[in-house]
Design a protein that fits this description.
The structure is a single chain. By secondary structure, this protein is mainly alpha-helical. It has one domain (2-300). Helices cover 80% and strands 0% of the residues. It is built from eleven helices and no strands. The protein has helices spanning 2-29, 33-43, 48-72, 81-90, 92-110, 117-135, 145-177, 179-182, 185-220, 233-268, 273-300. The longest helix is centred in the middle third of the chain and has 36 residues, at 185-220.
Length: 310
């Protein structure tokens, strides 16, 4: 039961973090001008950021409670204020989870403000801080010295790149499913422009994910353990994650090189609905794959990497 609770709390935090980072940033760089602001207002759930921040706050609170009980080996400490404070104030893990709780509280309050470019910038900044906080509560914070700095730095970049990419996918999924945008020519044009702008940002994020993923794998697995991956639980989950990541790359390539140009042709011919339907299905599958990746990452965080002692 404790393991299930931990996995759910991790998934809630990761999912909420990518939404709070990538979605508002996409509204900033992808949806520009009056038409872009209108598309964001029409296509994004009004309380979407509020519920994301609330899920993050609850998930982080559960994570702190379960980790405290694990550290002290006393189940009752999960709800004991003195024990919780001791973990928050006395460890690198506590620094990371404490920062996450504080930033989630700020995001929760900010999400109640009317949508604007200022709000998107604020939420994106808070989301970036939240993403960075995960580096201090994960495997990337387990090394010391120069090795620790390189590992932690790669982990930070990996988390930021993932948030920018996956959060934008969440925003696009909401936009392409919106009936208000489907029936609005200006909104569809703004969506198409956003897809074009995202293609460059998304490609950069993927490149950074691959590079930092290789660096993290060097520290967490090591060349000597590569052939042992299929025979371990950690390796099996990691391989599953890489396969889903490859699927997401294929879907992203289809969106960029096939479906986005089809939407442009549909807008030009004033018949965009067929192209938009295909795009909606593709982004829907990409969103489902993203959720599966976050679930696999949540599981990986509870397992011991092959290059680290049990």
């Amino acid at each position: 039961m404790a393991l299930v609770l931990t996995l759910v709390a991790r998934l809630a935090q990761y999912g909420a973090a990518v939404v709070l980072l990538g979605a508002p940033l996409f509204f900033l760089y992808g949806l520009r001008g009056e038409a872009g602001r209108g598309a964001a207002a029409a296509g994004w759930p009004r309380l979407g950021f509020f519920f994301a921040a609330l899920a993050l706050l609850l998930g982080a609170g559960v994570a702190l409670s379960t980790e405290t009980a694990t550290m002290t080996d006393q189940p009752a400490d999960a709800l004991r204020p003195s024990a919780l404070w001791a973990v928050l104030s006395g460890s690198r893990y506590g620094l990371g989870i404490g920062a996450r709780l504080g930033l989630a509280t700020l995001a929760l309050a900010a999400s109640l403000a009317p949508g604007s470019r200022g709000l998107w910038a604020l939420l994106g900044g808070l989301g970036a801080g939240i993403a960075v906080s995960f580096a201090f509560t994960g495997h990337g914070a387990m090394d010391d010295g120069a090795r620790g700095m390189i590992h932690l730095g790669a982990d930070v970049i990996h988390l930021l790149a993932a948030g920018v990419w996956l959060g934008a996918v969440a925003a696009l999924a909401a936009l392409v499913q919106s009936r208000r945008i489907r029936d609005d020519a200006a909104g569809l044009k703004a969506l198409h422009s956003g897809l074009q702008r995202f293609s460059g940002i998304g490609s950069l994020a993927v490149a950074l994910l691959i590079l930092t993923g290789l660096i993290n794998s060097w520290f967490l697995i090591g060349p000597a353990h590569v052939l042992s991956l299929p025979g371990s639980i950690y390796g099996a989950v990691l391989i599953a994650k890489l396969l889903v990541f490859a699927l997401m790359l294929g879907l992203a390539a289809q969106n960029r090189y096939r479906l986005t140009p089809r939407l442009a042709d549909g807008l030009l011919n004033q018949a965009p609905k067929a192209a938009l339907s295909g795009l909606a299905w593709s982004i829907g599958f990409e969103t489902a794959a993203a959720i599966l990746i976050l679930a696999l990452v949540s599981a990986l965080g509870t397992l011991s990497p092959l290059a680290m002692p049990m």
